[in-house]
Amino acid sequence: MKIIWPLIILVPFVLLYANQSEYIETFPKAVDGMERFVLNLPEQQDESGLKVELIIGKYVLLDKENKYFFNGAIKEDIVKGWGFTYYKLDTLGVMAGTLMAVDPNAAKTEQFITLGGDPYLIRYNSRVPVVVYVPEGVIVKYRIWSAGLKMETMEKG
Questions:
Q1: Cα separation of 53 and 74, whole Å?
Q2: Residue 48: phi, psi to the nearest 5?
Q3: Largest Cα–Cα separation, the chain
Q4: Virtual CA dihedral for 104, 106, 110, 113, nearest 10 degrees?
Q5: Helical ranges in the chain per DSSP H
Q6: Fold of domain 4-146
Q7: What is the pTM for the complete model shown?
Q8: Alpha carbon of 25 to those of 21, 28, 30, 115: distances in Å?
Q9: Which residues pair with 58 in a beta bridge?
């Protein structure tokens, strides 16, 4: 009986991963100069209150004083015949930043510089992997956002 309980607990996770990894073959392979990142999300009881933030960027050696970002836009595309959404950054644009004067002798630090603009939030869906294509050398990170349980009513105005 001691052996059965761990199996009962692990089976749903194994089946979930098997389903997601099965679908990965439906997504296009990365073309030359591009890399494919894949995220398999764990099943949640109420996925409607969750979002996934895609954070795309790369590490650059820079001063600590200025704030930097890359230009670029994430595009959505659909796997034909399946309807699965995937995300693509064709090019990582020019890096821009603030122009505060800094000591030219100050040490530089490696920082993860991301695309500028608002957070890029997508639907949380544990049944299909999140697939992102980016240029080689670019990194995809993510963060899970969660809505609060309490809802408030707005006042009429």
A1: 12
A2: -65, -25
A3: 68
A4: -50
A5: 4-23
A6: Immunoglobulin-like (2.60.40)
A7: 0.82
A8: 8, 8, 12, 28
A9: 113
